[in-house]
Amino acid sequence: MNETPQATASQIPVQLLVMDVDSTFINEEVIDLIAAHAGVGDKVADITERAMAGELDFAESLAERVALLSGLPETVLDEVREQITLTEGAADLVAAVHSSGGQVALVSGGFTAIIAPVAAQLGITDVFANGLDIHDGLLTGRTNGRVIDPSAKAEIFENLLAAGGYDRAASVAIGDGANDIGMVEAAGLGVAFCAKPALVAAADASVETRDLRAVIDLVAARADV
């Protein structure tokens, strides 16, 4: 992963921040990067685009994409992790929430093996993503564990809110695709980040520039009202 920017010491009144990962917390779509190593990058990218637009069932599209990765060595995951770049302002947003005593969680249709080490660098330990099944050092083309689909994202958001005893009005959810609609609608402030039209229509606010510090400004503006 590329070196991250220094986070600021600013604070925002957020008790819970839940973010999607691919094309939100990071700039890339991880499964597309893995697919490039399998020589099926264009095919997988097309399925990803349609799934994020809400044109395909997410769980079915994930299974179809992961099946195309069968036979890849698990060492590819280390290579892909090095390709990951944090979205501009991600470190600043996370630091602002942590500085005010808030919790940050990542909820992703991507893969834990890629995401968790990246998140840990910013002190994020709550990561919910898909597992990749591996046998004898090779990807089997299957996931393991619960698939993090749209309903799972919304349920995880509600569970985090309840477990922390947080005020819904002090919660923020950020995503970019149709699979984020449930959690974005459930949050006190739901943000569509450089998002597909379906999510923009469901969100409270939309950010069109690829800089997550814009969310800090949104929260601050609401707090001043």
From TrEMBL:
Pfam family, one: HAD
SUPFAM superfamilies in UniProt: HAD-like
Keywords recorded for this protein, A-Z: Amino-acid biosynthesis, Hydrolase, Magnesium, Metal-binding, Serine biosynthesis
Enzyme Commission identifier(s): 3.1.3.3
Keyword Metal-binding recorded: yes
The protein's enzyme class: hydrolase
Pathway: Amino-acid biosynthesis; L-serine biosynthesis; L-serine from 3-phospho-D-glycerate: step 3/3
Entry annotated with the keyword Magnesium: yes
Catalytic activity: O-phospho-L-serine + H2O = L-serine + phosphate; O-phospho-D-serine + H2O = D-serine + phosphate
Cofactor(s) listed: Mg(2+)
Database matches in InterPro entries: HAD-like_SerB, HAD-like_sf, HAD_sf, PSP
Family designation: Belongs to the HAD-like hydrolase superfamily. SerB family.
Identification of the protein by name: phosphoserine phosphatase
Species of origin: Brevibacterium sediminis
Gene name, Swiss-Prot/TrEMBL: serB
